[in-house]
Amino acid sequence: MVALARSPRIQPKTDESSAFEADVLAGLHATPKRLPPKYFYDGLGSQLFERITELPEYYPTRCEMRILREQGADIAKLVPKGAALVEFGSGSSKKARILLRALPPLAAYVPVDICGEMIEQEARELRLDFPGLKVLPVTADITREFVLPQPALTAPVRAGFFPGSTIGNFEPHEAAAFLRNAARILGAGATLIVGADLIKPAEVLNAAYNDAAGVTARFNLNLLVRINRELRGTFKLDTFEHHAFYNRERNRVEMHLASLKRQKVKVAGESVDFRAGETIHTENSYKYSVDSLGALARGAGWQPAAVWTDERGYFSIQAFTLAK
Ligand code: AVI
């Protein structure tokens, strides 16, 4: 036992790595084949996503940051003094920093993310930049129920912040479940501020997910690199191609990895057959209208309170409230 555990080749499985293996095998044996987009974000995947946000074709991050900078004071009016701000899937807290500058003094800022290491590091930096602010990170899966730290629970009211149009990467029923969970966690009288990408001409969307520099293609293909590394996969990267397109009927950009030939691939000791042209569906990025997100939020118990968009109407920040 001890010898095995020490072997550099045989690593003990963590809950996280067994979940990855189970999800990947289930997705590759399904018809059609699919993989959950949450697995894009390993070290390299997170770096590639940061690069995507700076691409000329990828407008969402720039639009959202601009709305936050220009409308921050107005958005801040929905968060009363002494409230606790809970950010869902905070990552680098880049957008929260803009909002925090506009907000009145808070009971606490609670960044919540699955990646504990990253939020602890960000929390240290935030404490230096916002000396009066209690920064209380929570490592948790934002789609599950989690417990807030005491100062956030005892604050008179809580506000949630869910930027980045991450809501668009959930299937609509998952987005509704997230909104219900956020309502449970934040409690009566809460406000929820959500960044959501809007429906727009297909050319703009197709360009945003098919950038000329090929960064989105690398981001998509990196999922296969990760499977090769972590699950003893044998994917040959030059036999798969990035496909992304706007599906108008379903208001979503779909990303796929298409096999360029008939082939067999091994993953975690199991064989997976591909037909030529067969794809693995790796991501949906749903685009909403103000009304469609409003209807989803209403169904989860939230009342639409305010909406801010950029001048082209590409991106929205929408606020919802819960009855007291
Ligand atoms: C993180 N998420 C909102 C991005 C999106 O636009 O759906 C992920 C992404 N996929 C390809 N490019 C960016």
The span between the termini is 56 Å
Beta strand %: 15-25%
Indicate the overall shape: globular
Summed up, the helix count is 11
Topology readout:
Elements: H1 2-6, H2 15-29, E1 33-34, H3 43-53, H4 60-76, E2 84-88, H5 94-102, E3 108-113, H6 116-129, E4 138-139, H7 150-154, E5 158-162, H8 172-186, E6 191-197, H9 202-208, H10 215-230, E7 240-247, E8 252-259, E9 263-267, E10 270-274, E11 279-286, H11 290-299, E12 303-309, E13 315-321
Parallel strand pairs: 1-11, 2-3, 2-5, 3-4, 5-6
Antiparallel strand pairs: 6-13, 7-8, 8-11, 9-10, 12-13
Helix pairs in contact: 3-10, 4-5
The structure holds N,N-dimethyl-L-histidine (AVI).
Structure write-up:
- The protein has eleven helices and 13 strands.
- It is of the alpha/beta class and 324 residues long.
- The strands form three sheets. A seven-stranded mixed β-sheet has the order 4-3-2-5-6-13-12, with helices on both faces. It has a four-stranded mixed β-sheet with strand order 1-11-8-7.
- Helix 4 (60-76) runs parallel beside helix 5.
- The longest helix is centred in the first third of the chain and has 17 residues, at 60-76.
- The protein binds N,N-dimethyl-L-histidine (AVI).
- The site of N,N-dimethyl-L-histidine (AVI) has 11 residues, from strand 11.
